[in-house]
Amino acid sequence: MMGSSISRNSIMLGLFAIMTTALIAGTYLGTRDMIVEAQRKAQEKALLEIIPGERHDNSMLDDTLIIGPEADGLRLSSSQQIFIARQQEKAVAVILPVTAPDGYSGAIDLIVGINSDGSIAGVRVLTHKETPGLGDKVDLNKSDWILSFNGTSLRNPMPAQWKVKKDKGYFDQFTGATITPRAVTAAIKRSLEYFQANQQSLLAPLQTTPIGEENSDG
């Protein structure tokens, strides 16, 4: 009788595990698309803060280039996306990922919008671990300091001035904090230098004909 009871309990536990797994799987499958869509909308909102919708007629989320740690100057730790904004199929701006590895409390990840003329469209900090009340002022939710880069370029100010004022440069630092704004300023400058060096490929015309079919006779 004891053996029969153990077997019966084992079967019941097995059936319970199967039912629980099926329920979890069903819940995941039922909400997966909603989660993906919510993530997509959040990402699109962040991009539109830098390149507003009236400036382009394409979906930046669907017009991308893949870039990896080998990208000179961007100092990425993994492969990421470059987003391209187009108006009537002509590239008007790009949004580059860039990392400042030398923040006070660790790496600072940013996205930098650069107009086709080489000027900054906008910058946003995505992740950081900077000190609350000091270094966290790189976050737009804490301070408007990051907006001071809007409209700047490697011509205004000149490259030698892409430093904080404490280092005899153009940009303000925070009261009581220099390391964080110094790291962010240098990272943004590197993104501009990357854009300048790769401008032709970043702003290349939209590929409307599948590669390999350009010379097809139909």
UniProtKB/TrEMBL annotation:
Q: Where in the cell is it found?
A: Cell inner membrane
Q: Name the SMART domains on file.
A: FMN_bind
Q: What is its EC number?
A: 7.-.-.-
Residues bearing FMN phosphoryl threonine are T178
Q: What class of enzyme is it?
A: translocase
Its annotated function is as follows: Part of a membrane-bound complex that couples electron transfer with translocation of ions across the membrane.
Q: Could you tell me what this protein is called? A: Ion-translocating oxidoreductase complex subunit G
